């Protein structure tokens, strides 16, 4: 009647999954920090791109330094 369905979950490379999760966490943290700066009036929404890039880079470099 056809192929048997496998109950095994698809293989996920743990190294890729870890890297992807790390990138998601960095993005989330950077976004939350910049949004908070905007709420506090420290950053203008017009400069979001510039500030976000700087915050993202700082978080990413900090994580890489602490491996």
What can you tell me about this protein's structure?
By secondary structure, this protein is an all-alpha fold. It has one domain. Helix content is 66%, strand content 0%. Helix 1 (14-39) packs across helix 2 (48-65).
What would you report as the Rg, rounded to the nearest angstrom?
19 Å
**Total beta strand runs:** 0
Task: Give the termini separation.
Answer: 52 Å
Largest beta-sheet characterization: none
Parts with pLDDT < 50 across at least 5 consecutive residues: none
As an assembly, this protein is: single chain
Structural class: mainly alpha
Topology, please?
Blueprint: H1 14-39, H2 48-65
Helix pairs in contact: 1-2
Short note summarizing the structure:
The protein is mainly α. It has two helices and no strands. The termini are far apart.
Output the keywords:
single chain; 0% strand; mainly alpha; 2 helices; 67 residues
């Amino acid at each position: 009647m056809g192929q048997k369905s496998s109950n095994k979950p698809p293989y996920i490379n743990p190294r890729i999954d870890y890297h992807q999760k790390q990138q998601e966490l960095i993005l989330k943290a950077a976004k939350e920090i910049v949004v908070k700066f905007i709420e506090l009036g420290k950053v203008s929404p017009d400069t979001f791109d510039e500030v976000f890039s700087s915050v993202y880079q700082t978080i990413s470099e900090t994580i890489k330094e602490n491996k």
